[in-house]
Design goal:
The chain is an all-alpha fold. The protein is 95% helix and 0% strand. Helix 1 runs antiparallel to helix 2 and helix 2 packs across helix 3.
């Protein structure tokens, strides 16, 4: 329960009491003031409830996004560690693979620029 809900409930209760006093004494102004305060309290309480629901929904979304990010980070770290280990174990093969990838990328780029002419 957030502060708007608490304040809203307090205004609602005090508004009811004020309206009851106005009814008991026959004072229409006090009665109207109490009903207005009661309505204000109900609106503030509903606003607090809406904030709570939205906050919960955003919190769940944030938690899900954090889990996905954490999983992705772990996958990247694991992949990087594995790649580092393999490169250190077989540096010549890693160099040949890197050269081959560079050649393929250059061929693709050169081939796509020829197609534009």
């Amino acid at each position: 329960m957030d502060s708007d809900q608490i304040a809203g409930k307090f205004k609602d209760v005090t508004g009811r009491a004020e309206a009851a006093i106005g009814e008991a004494t026959g004072d229409r102004d006090t009665q109207a003031s109490g009903r207005a305060r009661q309505a204000e309290g109900k609106v503030q309480d509903l606003y607090g409830q809406a904030q709570e629901v939205i906050g919960d929904a955003l919190g769940d979304t944030t938690k899900s996004a954090e889990k996905v990010l954490h999983s992705a980070r772990e996958a990247v770290e694991t992949g990087a560690a594995t790649l580092t280990k393999e490169v250190n174990a077989r540096p010549l093969i890693a160099l040949l693979i890197a050269a081959l990838v560079g050649y393929v990328v250059a061929a693709l780029m050169h081939g796509s620029s020829n197609g534009r002419r």
